[in-house]
Amino acid sequence: MRERTPNSVITGGGTTARFDGVSLTIERGDAVWTLPVQALAETSLTGRSTVRVEISGVLREDTGAAHGLGPAVELRAPNATAAGAFHDLLRAGISTARRAPDGAALVRMERRAPRPRPDGGTFQRAALVVAGLVPYAMVFVLLGLASPETNAALIAVSLSFSAVAGLVGGNVLWRVGRRARSLWLLRGRGIGVTGRVTGYVRIWSKGPHLWVFSRMAFRTVGGQELTEVPSVVTVWGLSNASLRGRAVDLVYDPEHPSRASRPLTFGFVLRTLVLASAGGLALSGAVFGVLFHLPG
Burial letters for 103-126: b for 16+ Cβ neighbours within 10 Å, e otherwise? Predict the structure, then answer.
């Protein structure tokens, strides 16, 4: 009786790979490839935590195979130990299987159905904002009633300023943090492709290109076409000619392909620092106003 090969899984760079001794399954975004062990020619370790798998019967220069993987695929692991264990199991499976002369013909590629989006998203967001603003306002009303300050006008003005400054500063810092999180996710699991700039979004009409975000069109490695995807990072150019109609290297999140970005620029870093400073200053003013009116 043949000994059963344990399932092995590695995840890295937006790709999840599984091997059970019978087939290798690769998942990237909504695309899933299944490669029978007979379709695999060999495997090797490249770098400290990357497993390279070559498909049998595919010429190295033939990068346009129908399955979309090319002659070989590199699978990233979270660490060298995981890569070594996955490589050893894969090599053992390949050594005991009869290699197919045309492994590409055995590769299957499927697409998973996209996750349905709930209806009424705009209404739900508006309801959440209102539900958050009501208790937020009540906190300042109660704070004004409990304030040791006796000047009603001063209480009203200072707490109104603190409430507005808290909203503005918190919103700015939330947006800065959201973009920083997107860049962090893209750094950890992003997949690089070449796309095309189709337009731009200017956040502030009077500002320089620090406030201009490209809209991009590109194709994922799974073949999904995306258009009008805004970049997380702003452009850094001196003329409007750099804003559209040119090729651009970008990175997208395979789990959420609409999250994509062109390379990080000095302008975006400068913009982030300016916004974070302004948001932090506004939030600090709000905190000072609240502390001033705390009883006791």
Answer: bbebbebeeeeeeeeeeeeeeeee
